[in-house]
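#struct-help
A.M.: can someone run this one for me? Single chain, 119 residues.
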Amino acid sequence: MEKYSGREKKKVHDLCHKIAKIIVDFAKEYGFGIIMEDLKGIRKNINKSKNLNRRLHSWNFRKLQFFIEYKAKLNGIPVVYVNPRKTSSLCPRCGGKLTPNEQRLMKCRKCGYENDRDV
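D.P.: on it. Structure tokens below:
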């Protein structure tokens, strides 16, 4: 047990570092700032079944944000946190209303911007 304890935690820690480096390198290459949702207090809203609660509370979403933020600051890239409310339904270009175009695609009514709903 001693040999294997913490192995998964170390893998997740390493993976978060690698993902954060990729994101910061991309932002640095193209001259972007980084915008992320403010996830503080997200655990307070998780109240499902016992099994699902355990799975949801084991996510490392804040750890990844922390790594992205400190790596961005070291590279002089600005990081902004926004309220996640309505971010999935507003166009990132003009602020217009996004409507579903296909299963995963969203299209803006005003400017015609079209992208995957998770982008």
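A.M.: thanks! The longest helix spans residues 7-30.
D.P.: also worth noting: The mean pLDDT is 83.
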